[in-house]
Amino acid sequence: MLIIDSKDCENIDKALKKYKKKFEKAKVLLQLRGRQSYTKPSVKHRNMVLKAVYRQQVASGKIEK
């Protein structure tokens, strides 16, 4: 649960902006999207390895973005 401390003199736009920043930092939306479908641990691990290989190839200059 996100709690925003707002002062009486604070504008509602500023409070909404604070809420949006906290919401973004909490990564609530990413968690919800991740829980929509189940991915097996072996598939997660395979994707992590493939991403690491890709990043390493980009860093070494074999692949250009």
UniProtKB/TrEMBL annotation:
Belongs to the bacterial ribosomal protein bS21 family. NCBIfam families: S21p. The lineage of its organism: Bacteria, Pseudomonadati, Bacteroidota, Chitinophagia, Chitinophagales. Transmembrane segments: none annotated. The keyword Iron does not apply. Pfam families: Ribosomal_S21. This is Small ribosomal subunit protein bS21. InterPro entries: Ribosomal_bS21, Ribosomal_bS21_sf. Keywords: Ribonucleoprotein, Ribosomal protein.
